[in-house]
UniProtKB/TrEMBL annotation:
InterPro entries: COQ9_C, Ubiq_biosynth_COQ9. One of its GO terms (molecular function) is lipid binding. Membrane-associated protein that warps the membrane surface to access and bind aromatic isoprenes with high specificity, including ubiquinone (CoQ) isoprene intermediates and presents them directly to COQ7, therefore facilitating the COQ7-mediated hydroxylase step. Participates in the biosynthesis of coenzyme Q, also named ubiquinone, an essential lipid-soluble electron transporter for aerobic cellular respiration. Pathway: Cofactor biosynthesis; ubiquinone biosynthesis. It comes from the Bacteria. GO terms for biological process: ubiquinone biosynthetic process. It comes from Novosphingobium flavum. This is COQ9 family protein.
Length: 218
């Protein structure tokens, strides 16, 4: 599709990867937008209109494109047979792969998102990404688990991004090890929570045991 035929929303997403690439050198700025526009053959003035909110619009669009690429590359039917921890690991690793070579843009983005005036939007953006990952992982929970799972995954992903951004180890091995530890910790917590919350009649009951001792089944 010709760039001239795109809506502003479509143009914003089309420009986002180029803006992220330029942000490595130019930061999340109008210069980055202009460079992305030139690569796409779009007038800079039109491209700037696609990001009325400035840097946060650029960053949010970049994250949205990663969400979309992740959904195309790892649909539920492709990873559905994996253990849940492997599904989550695969989804996060895909996202980290999309960030390789753009660590400086990521560092700058994280700094901007951490600003008080951007906290609410940054939290919403992170929630959306965590929700997208859980849905691809096959989660259909609708109770409080829906919220706790996304909050937990969001915190794991955010912490992993901080490690990734400054990881100088070969093949980002330190990031992979960090992610594995965090996922393993969450899996242990979820198992413990499931045991505590399972129905009473499925758990151990001293009263039932004593009753059986007194009145053995015939």
């Amino acid at each position: 599709m010709d760039a001239a035929d795109l809506t502003l929303d479509e143009l914003r997403l089309a420009l986002a990867p180029g803006v992220a690439g330029a942000a490595v050198f130019d930061g999340w700025s109008t210069e980055a937008v202009d460079n992305a526009a030139a690569a796409l053959g779009v007038a800079p003035a039109v491209a700037r209109i696609a990001f009325p909110g400035g840097a946060m619009d650029m960053i949010a669009a970049w994250i949205e494109t990663i969400d979309a690429d992740m959904a195309k590359a790892l649909p539920a039917q492709r990873i559905g047979n994996l253990p849940i921890r492997e599904r989550i690991r695969s989804l996060i690793q895909f996202r980290l792969g999309a960030l390789k070579g753009k660590e400086e843009a990521l560092r700058r983005a994280l700094s901007i998102m951490a600003m008080p005036q951007n906290a609410r939007r940054a939290a919403r953006t992170g929630w959306n990404s965590a929700d997208a990952m859980w849905r691809l992982a096959g989660d259909t929970s609708a109770d409080y688990n829906h919220y706790t799972k996304r909050a937990t995954l969001g915190s794991i992903y955010a912490a992993t991004l901080l490690v990734f951004a400054d990881d100088q180890s070969e093949g980002k091995a330190a990031t992979a090890a960090f992610l594995d530890r965090r996922i393993e910790g969450v899996m242990r917590f979820e198992k413990a929570k499931a045991r505590l919350l399972r129905p009473r009649d499925e758990g151990f009951s001293m009263t039932r045991l004593l009753g059986r001792m007194r009145y053995p089944a015939r």
